[in-house]
Each structure stands twice: as C-alpha cells, then as structure tokens.
Amino acid sequence: MYILMEFLKLFQASFSLILLPLLLRLLFSCWILPILVYRKLRKNGFGGPTPSFPLGNIREMEILCDYDSSLESSAISHDIHSTVFPYFSEWQKSHGKVFIYWLGTEPFLYIAEPEFLKKMSSKVQGKHWGKPNVFKHDRKPMFGSGLLMVEGDDWVRHRHVITPAFSPPNLKTVVSLMVEPATKMLERWTALINAGKTEFDVEREIAMMAGEIIGRAGFGLSCENGGEVLEKLRAMQITLFNVNRYVGVPFGQWICRRKNMEAKKLGKEIDQLLLSIISGARNKCGEGSGQRQRHRCLLGYLMEGERLNERELVDECKTFFFGGHETTALALTWTVLLLAMHPHWQNQLREEITQVIGDGEIDFTNLAALNKMGWVMNEVLRLYSPAPNVQRQAREEIKVDDLVIPKGTNLWVDTVAMHHDPTLWGDDVYEFRPERFKDDNLYGGCKHKMGFLPFGFGGRMCIGRNWTFMEYKVVLTLLLTRFSFSLSPTYHHSPSILLSLRPRYGMPLIVQPL
Ligand code: HEM
C-alpha cells in the first residue's frame, strides 16, 4: 500500500512537472494557435468546408479522391484540375477561389485568384516567407534544410552562395555535359528499336537521363555514383508521399511510424553517400591539385568559401539532386505526350531546329534562338505543371487592402487551377496551343500576370529555371532529330500527384526512327 501511495505521488509530481506543461504546449500549438489564426481569417469573410477534429477536411478529401478515380476514362483530356485535385475543384464551386480548408488541426488559406496573390505577395520579401511547419517533418528526410525549406537570413545566405552557379557564363559551359547523357539515352532507344521494341516507357527513360545530367553537370559524378543517390531518393519519395500521411493531424507521425522509420533510414544512407561524394570533391579540388576546371559544377559553388557547414552542404546536395532532375524530366515527359498527340508540332519544331542549328553543334546561343520550342515548353508547363502548387507560411501579419492575413497562416497556391482557369485563358484553355505564347512569350496572353506560375513567384522563385530551359531544349532537339513519337493504345491518361504532377501509369509511347 505504502509503495502504491509513493508511486502515485511520484506520478502526480512528474505529471505536474513534465507531462502537464507538455500537454499544455501541445494543446496550444495544435488547437489554440490554429483556432486563433482561423478566427482572424474568418473575420475577413473567407468561407470554406466545415472541418472536424482531429482530421480537419482530410476525410472529405479522401472520399472525393476515391470517387473521382472511379470515373477515369481512357480519353485524353487536358481538363485535369478536377481529377488531380477533386476536393479543391468541388470546394471552389461553393466557396470561390480563396477559402480556408484544414489539414488536421492546421488551417490553410487556399488561393486560386491571381489578383489576391499579387496584392498579398507584393508585401512580402523572399526572406520573410516561411514554408508550412506541418510539412517540415515530412520533407526533412528529402530536402533537410536545403534552399527549398530554409528561411530568413539563412535562406539569403544559401541563395547568395548558389545563385552564381546559374549565371549565363556558367550555364554556357554546362551544355556539352547535358548532351552526353541525352545522346546515351538515344543510343539506348536505337538499340531497343533495332531489337524490335518500338514501344517503351519514356517517363522512366527520361527520368534516368535527367538524373544522369544533374549527377554529371551538377556534381561531376559518374552515372553509377549518381544513380545510387537517385534510386534512394526515388524510393524515399514513394515512401513519403505515396500514402496519406495525416499531415497536420496530432500524432500523425505515429500513425505512419513504419514509413517514417523507413524514410529516416533511407535519409541516413543518402547522407552517407553524399558525404563521400563531398569528401571526394574536396580531395580533387584540394590545394596543390593545381587544376582549374573549365566548368565549375554546382557542388563547387556550394563548397566555395566554406559558407555552408557540412550538414547544410549535404541538405543542398539532396535538394539539387532531387529538384534538379524530377521536374525537368516531367516537363519533357509531358512534352513528348503532347507532341505525340500533335504531330504537326513535331514537324514545326524539326523545321526550326534545321533552320537554327542545322548540322552545327548545340550551344547556348542557338538554343536561345529556338523560339517555337520555348512556346511549346511554356504551353506544356501550363497544361501539366510539374510543380502543381506553391506552399508558403506567413511569418508576419500581411495586410491586403482592408483584409488581414495573420502571422502563421499557411498558404496553398493552386497553380493547376490557375493554369486551367477559362476566365484567365479564354475558352481554348484546355487546348494545346503553343502559339498563345507567340506574341506574349512570358504569359501566353493570360489575363493576369500572376496566372502563369510554373516556377513560383517573388524572391523565392525557382533558382533552376534557366538550367531547365537549357536542358529541355538540348534534350528535345536531340530527340526530335532522331525520332518521331505517336500515341500507344496502352497509354492510360491519369495525371496524379506524388509531390509533383506525373503520369500515374508511366508513359508508354511508340517511338520510330526518322
Ligand atoms: C520544369 C522544371 C522546374 C519547375 C516546374 C520548378 C518549379 C519550382 C517551383 C514552383 C518552386 C517554388 C517556388 C516558390 O516557392 O515560389 C521551385 C523552387 C526551387 N527550385 Fe525549381 N523547378 C524546376 C526546375 C528546377 C531545377 C532544374 C533546379 C535545380 C537545378 C531547381 C531547384 C529549385 C530550388 C533549389 C528551389 C527553391 C528556391 C528557393 O526557395 O529559394 N528547380 N521550383
């Protein structure tokens, strides 16, 4: 009896000293703080679907996703918003283009209205934008505190270190390093065709090639070393984003504990691989080697002046390895599909290549002169934006006219919705019409300049966009001069989200030599 009493006393003491403050903190961050933000947002008059505790609107999102996938058809329609984001499309009907929805106990301000976005973002500098805290846990193994996730003065420091790597003089030297892996892929395709296989999954092929490009041009790696990092990053992507992870739900990490452990393990393995790559590069660039490389790879810039510590360096490597290949590969994959559907555009691009490059070598200057290819790229990024949304968190209160967006508000900018909005683009919004970028090569005639955001907006806009323009044009030029593409009956059109916008069942196409 005495022991029991002592135990109860001990429990009481530890409860009041440790557990109670912890519980109060949890209650404050998971419930009181989000409710305060929500109340302030509601004062602005924003509506939204009714949330329930503790899932918010997650259950409704799941139900709407299930419902829509059963309606999939084999026809190819570019009207994809209601398939990839059925819940947003449904909620827009009742609540308009700016509303509040909940992921667990976290309210998000949904935005598909360019004028509102313009007014709001013009008040905030890059370094004052945050990334939603609720996603940080999920994304940590993938991006760590790399440029995509870092905030404040650290973001300014990282961005300064990295920006010179994307300057035109450096990018000029990268072109030849992009040609090599692309040519290797074409040789593989030729071998497949010679062996009688004219249909294959171009998505896999292009992703592998884009991975080699970032490995070689970004990190000076052989394909074997780069391949291992990429394989693990892809496995991590599937582990992290293929299931509903109950983001924003208190203790959500515990529901998906096994997946979290797997992701952490993969994260550690990738860190080890990258550390050995970094130390190899240090030895190569070490004093006394006396060798000045003509091309400075990304890693060289990242390591310069030791302005990033080892942890930051590893996180940047992960960020660039992944960010540097996935989105560009998807832009090329969707392009090949659209060109297979529109053979006259294949011909137009071939003619342009003949006029601009002819039998000459591909270089920085002639790539810039491939104007029609630029229109095609923009139109693909409009219809199938590889980065389907932009997420931010307000670190300070933001005033928009007489509205107040409170500090801590999570923002979800729906890029796909704006790129498919007939009020911004006109009645031909769902058609593939690259010529819309002919007279307005930046905005394609969109009625609002913030309506076309494939690379995000403001100071935190994608740092790698010029790299992408080049890689896209190098690879497409080589592809179009060797092959033609047509649709395969086995292709099933089902764009889906796995962090980025990708074809759910790959991209089998019929490829023929010219
Ligand atoms: C089609 C290709 C690409 C697309 C669609 C794309 C899209 C985006 C978007 C939407 C953002 C977020 C911007 C924001 O928050 O406003 C972003 C950021 C970023 N992208 Fe890209 N990207 C592409 C290619 C690349 C490449 C090739 C690299 C690297 C070589 C890269 C590296 C990054 C990094 C590091 C950031 C974070 C920038 C920051 O927060 O300062 N991206 N990208």
UniProtKB/TrEMBL annotation:
Cofactor(s) of this protein: heme
Q: Which family does it belong to?
A: Belongs to the cytochrome P450 family.
Subcellular location per UniProt equals: Membrane
Domain of life (superkingdom):
Eukaryota
- State the annotated membrane topology for this chain: Single-pass membrane protein
Query: Which Pfam families does the entry link to?
Result: p450 (PF00067)
Which organism does this sequence originate in? Hibiscus sabdariffa (roselle)
User: Which keywords label this protein?
Assistant: Heme, Iron, Membrane, Metal-binding, Monooxygenase, Oxidoreductase, Transmembrane, Transmembrane helix
Q: Which InterPro entries match?
A: Cyt_P450 (IPR001128), Cyt_P450_CS (IPR017972), Cyt_P450_E_grp-I (IPR002401), Cyt_P450_sf (IPR036396), Cytochrome_P450_Monooxygen (IPR050665)
Q: Which PROSITE patterns match?
A: CYTOCHROME_P450
Name of the molecule in the record: Cytochrome P450
